[in-house]
Each structure stands twice: as structure tokens, then as C-alpha cells.
Amino acid sequence: PNYVIDYLTSFSLQNALKTKKNTLRICDPSCGSGGFLIRVAELLETDYGISADKAFSEIIVGLDIDKVALEQAKCLIELYLASKGKAMLPGKTAQLFELDTLTTDQNVILSTTSSPGGFDVIVTNPPYVKFQNLEPEYRQILINKYDGLANGNFSLSVLFLVKGYELLSQNGYLGVITQNNLFTSLAGKNIREHLQKQQCLRRILDFG
What we know:
It is a single chain. This protein is α/β, with parallel strands linked by helices. It has eight helices and five strands; from the N terminus they run H-E-H-H-E-H-E-H-E-H-H-E-H. A five-stranded parallel β-sheet has the order 3-2-1-4-5, sandwiched between helices. The longest helix has 17 residues, at about 65-85. The two termini are about 15 Å apart.
């Protein structure tokens, strides 16, 4: 629902902007067909006076492993801009990249997206694909990359907490929708300990 996207984005933006002086970089690392991206553009325009064409050309970045979803996102962004009587800035396109966020090195992601200092805000509703439902080869890649964190009966969504944190700028904020059993299940134990060790949590909202 939009109120969830709005809360995650507004809370993250308000905190990130307290120390931000240069151009913002906002990312959805599992953007799918672009629902979050469009809502972020709407908030940037209504709350901060940043036009949608500028937002999509210079600020908002979408990543996804699914090429078809990215094509849909591109179309929806163009339709959204048209509804505002706007188009992309001359020589610019929407910043959409076909990347596997979880397995691609963070330095490669930041270089590819021209975000060398990291993202100031990351907001996403990541996939909830269960670990045991993944292809064995991909499952092993994740086990190797997230040593000790990828285990048990959990979904991909919790790994976006780990990877999202790695992609943030120094004072960046990450807003993620995730399953509340992350905080109670045995499978989430190592992730919880990892987040606690980083001392990076600002707020948890549990809808029960």
C-alpha cells in the first residue's frame, strides 16, 4: 500500500537529508515493475519540490534481475511522466539496471550506477522467495557469499537487509519490508546477530 511506501521513504529521506549536501541518490535494489520508484518520485515532487523528470534522470535508481520487469518499469515511468506533462531530460533515460543485487559486488553496483559514495536512501519490498525453493546452484552461491547468514528456512528478503546496508552512503538510510518472523525464528538468528553487531537499526515497525 502507498502509505507503507510513503512512510519508509519519508522517514528515510528526512533522516538522510539532515547531513546531505550533494545530489541525492535513491535506490530500489529489487524494483520489479517500478511501483516504489514512481511513489518515490511523487514524494520528491510534493515534499521537496524536485520535478519528476529530474528525479528519474538524476536521483532515482532501480535495480532488478528481471529484464521484463525492468521494461515494464521503464514504460510505467514514461507513462507517469506523460501524466505530469513531462518527459525525460534531453539525453537522459531512467536509471534502470539489470543486476542481481544479492550476488553482484557492491563496488560494481555503485560504479555501474554512478553512485561511488553509496546510496543515501534505499527503499524496497524485496522478494520473499524461500531459500529451499531456489535452484541448488544459486543457493550455493548465496551460501558462499553470505557466509553463516544464509541458512535454514528463510526467504531472500532478509539478505536484502545485509546487502542494502553495504550499499548505503556514510549517513544513508535503508527502509525494507520484511517478514516479522525474522525477529523470532531460529533461521533468523545469525541475521539478527549481524544487525545487532553493526548497531545499525533505527526503528522496527511490526504490524503483527
